[in-house]
Amino acid sequence: TDTGVRLKGVYGSFRPLDEKSAFLLDFEKYEDGQELLGMEKIALNNMVQDHSLLHEHLGYQLFRAGDVPASRVTYAWVKVNGADFGLYALVEVVDNRHFLKSWMGDSKGNLYEGEYGVDLFPYAAEEFDQDSGSDQSGADLEALIDALDAMEESPPETWMEGLSALIDMERFLSFAATELYLGHWDGYSWSRNNYFIYRPAAGGKWTFIPWGIDQTFQDH
């Protein structure tokens, strides 16, 4: 019962409470360690931009089939104060210990969210939102950006080797190809939006994670 609830969404998917709002449920907001089926957070997406009601369910499934870390999805019928709000996509939030540990083998690393054109450009580390991780300095993200920037001084034929030392490129290529195949115009590959990057606490390679895929399966 002691669960944090807030409205969710920006621009296209945001709706006020007197319409079909989207919600984020945070089970640990007021009680440390409280979970529901191993999850600390769950998103209730209103699917107002997806008339098929299938985009997230099918899209994340395709990412997972390509070994890209991606949320599990089911459905829920939502009532607010006894009033029917209708059918929602019940989406596993990336910022969950179970999600990170099952895909990355570790849940204590730093998780960053990129939105609205934010990318790994010089001096852009502070523009990312850090969703988890005890080290809040952003030093690891700055080190990644510096390493990528330094590659411009090396021959292009060495770039893939350099990238592969920093980023899980097999997963990244699957991530990017799936975004393009789905027509995910609002994702990283097209718009530098709706994505996460994660690196385990013990070090190792960075991984890209998709998000916000309700506007997919379109002709882009």
Can you give keywords for this protein?
alpha+beta; 220 residues; 9 strands; 6 helices; four-stranded antiparallel β-sheet
Would you write up a description of this structure?
The protein has about 220 residues and is of the alpha+beta class. It has helices at about 55-65, 95-105, 140-150, 160-165, 170-180, 190; strands spanning about 5-10, 20-25, 40-45, 75-80, 85-90, 110-115, 130, 195-200, 205-210. The model has no long low-confidence stretch (mean pLDDT about 95). The chain contains six helices and nine strands, in the order βββαββαββααααββ.
- Strand content is 15-25%
Q: Count of helices?
A: 6
Anisotropy-based shape: globular
Arithmetic mean pLDDT: 94
Number of strands: 9
Largest sheet: 5 strands, antiparallel
In terms of structural class, how would the helical and strand content be classed?
Answer: alpha+beta
- Low-pLDDT segments: none
Distance between the termini: 43 Å
Question: How do the strands line up in the largest sheet?
Answer: 1-2-3-5-4
Give a topology summary.
Layout: E1 4-8, E2 22-26, E3 41-45, H1 55-65, E4 73-80, E5 83-92, H2 97-104, E6 110-114, E7 129-132, H3 139-150, H4 159-166, H5 169-182, H6 188-191, E8 195-199, E9 207-210
Antiparallel strand pairs: 1-2, 2-3, 3-5, 4-5, 6-7, 6-8, 8-9
Summarize it.
This protein is α+β, with helices and mostly antiparallel strands. It has helices spanning 55-65, 97-104, 139-150, 159-166, 169-182, 188-191, and strands spanning 4-8, 22-26, 41-45, 73-80, 83-92, 110-114, 129-132, 195-199, 207-210. The N and C termini lie far apart (43 Å).
